[in-house]
Structures are given as structure tokens and as C-alpha cells.
Design brief:
The complex is a heterodimer of chains A (329) and B (461). With 329 residues, chain A is of the alpha/beta class. Chain A has a single domain, classed as Rossmann fold. Helices cover 41% and strands 10% of the residues of chain A. In chain A, strands 1-2-3-7-6 form a 5-stranded parallel β-sheet, sandwiched between helices. Chain B folds into 3 domains: 76 residues, OB fold (Dihydrolipoamide Acetyltransferase, E2P) (Beta Barrel), CATH 2.40.50.100; 183 residues, Rossmann fold; 127 residues, Rossmann fold, CATH 3.40.50.920. The chains are: A alpha/beta (329), B alpha/beta (461). The interface between A and B is large, with 53 and 59 residues. Bound molecules: thiamine diphosphate and magnesium ion. Thiamine diphosphate sits at the interface of chains A and B.
């Protein structure tokens, strides 16, 4: 597979690359497993897979410090794994079991971990954007130098509340990084059919928010851009926009036949731009690893995912009393 | 080891599907990610990928087979070098009897089971909405809605449809299938995901003389547009002293689908019914979906048209008529009875009808009334029925506090107090956000059993 030369950091260490490789692979294998469990009827409702977009969260999490926050949409499994949440707990939430992060009450689209500063998992397109700025508002208020990664899609980027948020985030210099995961489609709508101008990273200009576009299939490029954005936010200069160009290989959700794009388009992306293959190829060509090392990682990741799947099947359904708990305190 | 490839679940509401096409044959080697079959779900034709690698040793379900249950084995996969003779032979096994074929497959998971359609779904009502003897056609709610919109768009070129994925994608729930082809992109308009914005643009277009139909992908997302619906669409006629209003339809699926959890499973019937200036309808049968949709498009007021994803695929009799409409504001007596009145609407009707069937076996003769319209409500029909039966149970999916049932109870108490032999009971969804877990979701929804119990309670049995 052709490795695209990573123009960014040429002197990235073997450890770092291996870490990215493993983290991205974990997301991919986890998502493949989730797809299987959905097909078997163990996962229900809507289930949106992150396959293809792994470099975005892995690259950005590499720039985060303890205490930084993250919030995203329903396409959230990758974000949770990258934030260090337990794969078993995530999978058990997908199967709607007691061992899930929300005790089975939230499901794929609505999961949270206070511990890992993961604030969801939101099912309403665009709603997480002001919420993310609100988290940043709290940090600024508490003067704790933390930043919030607020992820949303190219489709969500058209919602009105995004622009209300941009204005206030800039006005109040909130430490929030708006991460637009531009995977080129919002369900069946290609980005050029929904947006009047092609570039989303310029959408903060009117509010004085700096933005840049990033190759989201290249984890090192994402990491680089993330470092810059984090530095900007942490130093009190207010919000930052990263438009990360990425691609989802699967349908929008499990029930999307994805007839709006050609099989060739997807295949080309997979073959030429795959984020995991790119890192794999650097590892091998730089002699940072040999095939056997990578095989060992593959095996380890597979066993983590299998264990998560087992846990998610064995964990019991929530007790019926759970129906009535957590509505109010 | 030989593994079974099972019929996959490919949508939240899928319980069975058609195995339209095999893209592999026996003896082929497949690896994870290869597309091995095409499967038609309730919503679309999907490609089915292999999850393991191996050799297709046997195809159990032939292509073209319909109604293959989710989790039924459809093929047998063996590992390279494995003797194919170890494969259990299940040729000609009846499709759908998955349990008998489950050798080592996963334990079948409890899915939300639709009530057996064996129950009589034909209204025993004396009052039909069409002339006696009219030819009837079995049609799904989905087709009925599309036909209604298309007929009205042919009749009046100021009518247009806008919403997310209504055009090129043919509708997220395939309601507008084929409409872009027929009417073109001037009249079937794909919008960005900007509900508040496009709802407002549609209200403005209605002020300007057009008749917009706004599709919300689901009514959960209409919350984003609530201000334009309530403050602009509903109130302008009044505020302008009758000079201008918003003749338009806001439509889309409403209420719970299956396992889509709290943010995607709310019934908004009572919310909209609360607002003066709106009309609100919530049909159950396909004929009502069609007739009410045509009336809604012609109505000079903003009409909230609440559909239901689970009902989209259900078939009912629809009259074959040049121009069939059902008036807004008129209930339909679905089943005549003398012991108790069960009032419902939308998918609640399913539980009301089922309960009535169970009750009749117990010697309780229930009258079932489908309100169909929630604003205005046909109080005359409701009160006439309650005065006849002297007992009433209401059934709806929405939350209990401030429900349609609460309102009906109040009206019945005020206007028919002396006729009541028991307090009215409201059967509703539970007072909690919709949980995701299968077992909890079942508990959260209103059930036939609850309706039966309520009827037994008001009839003191
Ligand atoms: C307010 C609202 N409108 C519509 C939807 C239905 N919907 C869910 S995801 C989606 C597409 C979003 O696309 P994008 O923001 O690009 O994110 P992606 O799915 O590509 O990650 C739509 C229309 C929703 N959940 N919420
Ligand atoms: Mg997108």
C-alpha cells in the first residue's frame, strides 16, 4: 500500500507511531465487531460506525492533557476509546446491558464518562456545539487552563446554533477547539450539496476565530494541527477551528445502503489514504517495527475487542427498577 | 469449525427481510469485508458483508427468498482445508424456523415483536369514509402518504416538499420515493440540516403564497424548529387580524421507533395539540394517512401531521377514488361496542384494537374510537360514545403528564359526568425518558396488557 509521505514531523519516534497504530487499530476492530453484533441483533436502534476516521480522534487525543474535555455527536465510539474509556463498558452500552457506561439506558448515541471527561454522545445534530462551549465557559470561569475538544460533522456545521456559539466563544475567549470532522457526507448529502461555500474552516472568520484545514487521514498532521490549536486555546487566546478532512467507509448508520456514492470512491480512499495503513507503512519502511511486531499488536487488539464483546454479551440486562431511576435526583 | 452466516438485522425496525441476491456461490473463498449478498430490509436494499474469512460451504437460503427472519442461518462458512462434509445439511429447511436450525449460533435475542397481524385489522365500523362498494386496494401507509402528496402536487403547483434527504436519497424513510423524478428539484428540495432555518423559510414562503410541505426527518428534530412552528406559523393569522397566515404542512415520523433511545423516541402529540393556531392530525390507517394528508395540504392553516415509523410498512385498505379526502377534525368509530369506550390515535390504536379483541373473548364489548385529529378534536363522537358505554379508557404513547388522555378526561368529566360509571383511566407511555435497553424500552411503552387491565378496572371485572 502506498504510504503517503507525512510532510509533518519527520522525526516522530517509534513509540509514538506504535501508539497511534495500536489506538487506531483498536477503534477499527471495535467498530467492526460492533457492526457484527448489530447484524446479530445484539445491538439495536441506530449505530454509527467510525471506520475510516480513526486518525482524527487519535491524533487529537495525543495533544490533550489530563483534565481536558471532549464532547461529540452520536458517532462517538472512537472518541470514547481514544479518551481511554473501557472497551467493555462501551460495548456493553451498545448491547444495552448493566455493565455499559450508562447502565444500558443511553445506547450507542448517548454515552458519558465523567471520569474520562467525556461529555457525550449526543443524538441531535449540532446540539453538542454550544454544550462544548459551555464546558469551556466553566473552565475559563474556574481559571483552570483546560481546553475542550468539541467535535461535529460537516452536516452539523450548518446548524444555526453553531454560529451563535462561534460568536459567544470568540466574544468571551472561550478555550474551545471546534473540530469539524468533515467526512464529506451528512447522511446521503454530499457536502457540496449542503454548503454554499466549500471551506468550513473559514466559517469562523466573521467572528474572528482562526481556522485551518487538516488532512484527517494522516494522524501526524492531525497531531500537529492539534498541538497548535491547543496551544492557542490554553494560552487564553480564545477558540480555534480545525476542519479535518476525513472519510467514513461505512454507511451513515447500519441501515444506510449508501447508494449516493460509488463503491470505487470508497475503495480508492481505503486503498490510497487509509490512516492505519499509512502509519503501518511508515513503521515498516523506517524499520521501527517488523511484520511480526505488528502482528503481535493485531493479536493483542483483537483479544481486547473479543473480551469487550464477551463482556457485552454476558453483562445482564439492567434491573427493571432502573426504568425509574436517574430521571431526577 | 463450520460457522453459520446468519440473516443480519440491517435496520432498527427490521425483523425479516428478503434475500434478494447472492454475490458468492458455494465453494467461493471470502474474507472479512467482502460483499456476499444483497438483502432487502423494510427500508432499503443493503449490501451484506462477510465478517469472517473462510469458504462458503453451503448456501442455506436461496436468493429470492422472502420473509427470512433475522438470525436465521443463510449460509455455512468453513475454514480452509476443512472437510465440507461436516456441514449440517439443511437444504429445503423452511425459512423462518430459525430456532430449529440454531446449531451453534448466538442465542436469539429478544426483539420487539410486533403483534401478530392475525388480529382482525378491518374496522367493523358502520361509518366508512368512502361510498359503499368503492373498490379497495391494499396499500402501505408509506405509499398512501406519497400518493397523497403527489396527487396534491399534480393538482396545485404552489405545493412543494422540502426537508433533509427528501430528494436524491428518496427520503430517509422512503416516503418521498420517486417524487424528485416526477417533480424535479424545484419542487422537491433537499435542505441542509438546519431545521429552524428551513422551517422559517417555509413559513415565509407560505406567507408569500406557496403551500409548503416541510418534512422533518423525525419530529424529534422539529424541536430545533419549534419557535418558527409555534411563534410564526401558528400565531400570524391571529396577529395580523386575519390578513395572512401559513397554509402549510409540517410532517414526519413521530414517537418511538425501536431502540433509538431518549432523544429519538418522543411522542409530541400533546405538545402540538396544546397550541391554538395549529391543526394536528395523527393517523393510524393508510386510508386516513392518505385522506388526511390531502386535506392537510389544502387546509388554509398550518397542519402538524404526525406519522409513525413502525406504521409506515403496515398495509390497510385504501379506496380507489379520483380524489379521496378525510376531513380534519372527525374521529372514526373503528369498532362498535357497548361496555366501554377506548379512545386512541396513531400507533396507540394498535393496542386499543388488540385489547378490544382480547376483551371480547372475555365477554367485554369495547367500542374503539380513532380520534385521527387532535386539534380540533371531535368531541361529539367522543361524548356520544362515552354516554353510550359509560366508561372510558384512553391510550397513547406519549408521557402521562399533560397528555391527550388528561384533556379528554377533563372534557368528559365536565360534559358527561353523570354518564360515567367509573373514573376515566389514561394509558400512556411511562413518565421517563425512553431507555435504550430492550427490557426497559418494553416497560416504558404503553402495552396491550395495560389497556386490558384498565378496561377491566373501569368495568369492575
Ligand atoms: C437536529 C437533527 N436533525 C437531523 C438529524 C438526523 N441526522 C442524524 S445524523 C445526520 C447527518 C449528520 O451529518 P454530519 O454532521 O456530517 O455528521 P456525520 O454523520 O457525517 O458524522 C442527520 C441528518 C438529527 N439527529 N438531528
Ligand atoms: Mg459528515
Amino acid at each position: 500500500m502506498a504510504a503517503r509521505k507525512s510532510s509533518s514531523k519527520p522525526n516522530v519516534s517509534a513509540e509514538e507511531l506504535l501508539k497511534y497504530y495500536k489506538e487506531m487499530l483498536l477503534i477499527r476492530r471495535f467498530e467492526e465487531k460492533a457492526g457484527q453484533l448489530y447484524g446479530m441483533g445484539l445491538i439495536g436502534g441506530f449505530c454509527h460506525l467510525y471506520i475510516g476516521q480513526e486518525a482524527v480522534v487519535v491524533g487529537l487525543e495525543a495533544t490533550a492533557k489530563q483534565g481536558d474535555k471532549r464532547i461529540t455527536s452520536y458517532r462517538d465510539h472512537g472518541h470514547m476509546l481514544a479518551a481511554g474509556m473501557d472497551p467493555g463498558g462501551v460495548m456493553a452500552e451498545l448491547t444495552g446491558r448493566m455493565g455499559g457506561y450508562s447502565k444500558g439506558k443511553g445506547g450507542s448515541m448517548h454515552m458519558f464518562s465523567k471520569d474520562k471527561h467525556f461529555y457525550g454522545g449526543h443524538g441531535i445534530v449540532g446540539a453538542q456545539v454550544p454544550l462544548g462551549a459551555g464546558l469551556a465557559f466553566a473552565d475559563r470561569y474556574q481559571e483552570n487552563a483546560r481546553v475542550t475538544f468539541t467535535y461535529f460533522g460537516d452536516g452539523a456545521a450548518n446548524q444555526g446554533q453553531v454560529y451563535e456559539t462561534f460568536n459567544m466563544a470568540a466574544l468571551w475567549q472561550l478555550p474551545v477547539i471546534f473540530v469539524i470532522e468533515n467526512n464529506q457526507y451528512a447522511m446521503g448529502t454530499a457536502q457540496n450539496r449542503s454548503t454554499s461555500t466549500p471551506d468550513l474552516y473559514t466559517r469562523g472568520e466573521a467572528f474572528g476565530i482562526r481556522g485551518e484545514t487538516v488532512d484527517g487521514m494522516d494522524v501526524l498532521a492531525v497531531k500537529d494541527a492539534g498541538d497548535k490549536a491547543v496551544k492557542h486555546c490554553r494560552s487564553g487566546k480564545g477558540p480555534y477551528i480545525l476542519e479535518i478532512k476525513t472519510y467514513r467507509y461505512r454507511g451513515h448508520s447500519m441501515s444506510d445502503p449508501a447508494k449516493y456514492r460509488t463503491r470505487e470512491e470508497v475503495q480508492k480512499m481505503r486503498e490510497e489514504r487509509d490512516p492505519i495503513e499509512q502509519v503501518r507503512s511508515i513503521l515498516l519502511t523506517k524499520n521501527y517495527a517488523i511484520e511480526d511486531d505488528l502482528k503481535a499488536i493485531d493479536k493483542e487488539v483483537k483479544s481486547v475487542v473479543n473480551a469487550a464483546a464477551e463482556f457485552s454479551k454476558e453483562s445482564p440486562e439492567p434491573n427493571v427498577e432502573e426504568l425509574w431511576t436517574d430521571v431526577c435526583i | 469449525m463450520a460457522t453459520e452466516i446468519l440473516m443480519p438485522a440491517l435496520s432498527p425496525t427490521m425483523e425479516e427481510g428478503k434475500l434478494s441476491k447472492w454475490l458468492v456461490k458455494e465453494g467461493d473463498t471470502v474474507s472479512s469485508g467482502d460483499i456476499i449478498a444483497e438483502i432487502e430490509t423494510d427500508k432499503a436494499t443493503m449490501e451484506f458483508e462477510a465478517v469472517d474469512e473462510g469458504i462458503i460451504a453451503k448456501i442455506v437460503v436461496a436468493e429470492g427468498t422472502e420473509n427470512v427472519r433475522v438470525n436465521a442461518p443463510i449460509a455455512i462458512l468453513v475454514e480452509e482445508g476443512e472437510r465440507v462434509t461436516v456441514v449440517p445439511t439443511v437444504v429445503n429447511a423452511p425459512v423462518g424456523l430459525a430456532s430449529g436450525l440454531q446449531l451453534s449460533g448466538p442465542t436469539p435475542v429478544a426483539t420487539k415483536v410486533m403483534p401478530a397481524p392475525a388480529l382482525e385489522l378491518v374496522p367493523t365500523s358502520v361509518e366508512l369514509d368512502w361510498p359503499e362498494g368503492t373498490e379497495l386496494r391494499h396499500q402501505t401507509v408509506r405509499e398512501a402518504l406519497r400518493d397523497a402528496m403527489s396527487e396534491e402536487m399534480r393538482r396545485d403547483d404552489s405545493v412543494f416538499l422540502m426537508g433533509e434527504e427528501v430528494g436524491e436519497y428518496q427520503g430517509a424513510y422512503k416516503i418521498s420515493q420517486g417524487m424528485l423524478d416526477e417533480f424535479g428539484s424545484k419542487r422537491v428540495i433537499d435542505t441542509p440540516i438546519t431545521e429552524h432555518g428551513f422551517a422559517g423559510i417555509a413559513v415565509g414562503a407560505a406567507f408569500g403564497g406557496l403551500r409548503p410541505i416541510v418534512e422533518f426527518m423525525t419530529f424529534n428534530f422539529a424541536m430545533q424548529a419549534m419557535d418558527q412552528i409555534v411563534n410564526s406559523a401558528a400565531k400570524t393569522l391571529y396577529m395580523s387580524g386575519g390578513q395572512m397566515g401559513a397554509p402549510m404542512v409540517f410532517r414526519g415520523p413521530n414517537g418511538a421507533a425501536a431502540r433509538v433511545a431518549a432523544q429519538h423516541s418522543q411522542d409530541y402529540a400533546a405538545w402540538y395539540a396544546h397550541v391554538p393556531g395549529l391543526k394536528v392530525v395523527m393517523p393510524y390507517a393508510a386510508s386516513d394517512a392518505k385522506g388526511l394528508m390531502k386535506s392537510a395540504i389544502r387546509d388554509p392553516n398550518p397542519v402538524i401531521f404526525l406519522e409513525n415509523e413502525i406504521l409506515y410498512g403496515r398495509s390497510f385498505d385504501v379506496p380507489v377514488m379520483e380524489d379521496f379526502t378525510v376531513p380534519i377534525g372527525k374521529a372514526r368509530v373503528w369498532r362498535e361496542g357497548s361496555d366501554v369506550t377506548i379512545l386512541s390515535f396513531g400507533i396507540g390504536m394498535q393496542f386499543a384494537i388488540e385489547a378490544a379483541e382480547f376483551l371480547s373473548a372475555d365477554g367485554i364489548d369495547a367500542e374503539v374510537v380513532d380520534l385521527r385529529s387532535l386539534r380540533p378534536i371531535d368531541y361529539d363522537t367522543v361524548l356520544a360514545s362515552v354516554c353510550k358505554t359509560n366508561r372510558c379508557v384512553t391510550v397513547e404513547e406519549g408521557f402521562p403528564v399533560g397528555s391527550i388522555g388528561n384533556h379528554l378526561s377533563a372534557v368528559i368529566m365536565e360534559r358527561a359526568f353523570d354518564y360515567l360509571d367509573a373514573p376515566v383511566i389514561n394509558c400512556t407511555g411511562k413518565d421517563v425518558p425512553m431507555p435504550y435497553a430492550t427490557n426497559l424500552e418494553k416497560l416504558a411503552l404503553v402495552t396491550t396488557d395495560e389497556v386490558v387491565a384498565a378496561v377491566k378496572s373501569v368495568t369492575y371485572r
